[in-house]
Amino acid sequence: GGIITQTPKFLIGQEGQKLTLKCQQNFNHDTMYWYRQDSGKGLRLIYYSITENDLQKGDLSEGYDASREKKSSFSLTVTSAQKNEMAVFLCASSIRQNSDYTFGSGTRLLVI
Amino acid sequence: GQQVQQSPASLVLQEGENAELQCNFSSTATRLQWFYQHPGGRLVSLFYNPSGTKHTGRLTSTTVTNERRSSLHISSSQTTDSGTYFCAIVGGSNYKLTFGKGTLLTVTP
Known about the structure:
Radius of gyration of chain B: 13 Å
Order of helices and strands of chain B: EEEEEEEEEEE
Oligomer: heterodimer
Distance between the termini of chain B: 41 Å
């Protein structure tokens, strides 16, 4: 079976810092996603990518950049970390846009 | 935009009791998924169920598409069922999966 790996698992940043989160999958899935999970707010879509070099904005793209340089990896950059920000960032992939998702275990971000 | 409402927000059961989790959504869903998240863990897909009834083990998902609702039934709950259950939909031509806020289930021994 395949696996979807997020690195790092924990990320502590400073206010104003640019932070990059990485996601790798070996399912050979076409579509990849980045979600943000805040306590009590469910998951919100930041960016997604239908295929290599494609980027689509989600509902929460402001303050983030993304990069899909190859099919197996999808990176997310927090362009300027906000003080006291605390959230979990979840990466997911699917064969195509309207099929079952597989999630990674998440990156937990804390900004001090 | 699309909205997904889950109820209850939290639920506490004794081991052996049954649980019924509800999901209501604002637009016709072309796709509906139920996910489970263990405390501090990844999301695991339980059901991909845009319509009808599906079973796996002690779990049953029933989606009534034209009434815009879905339910997740857990029979004979176990302490290992504790965690957060999310309902998520894709509506119309929109490819984005929209999540509800989840139901936090706690099963006590």
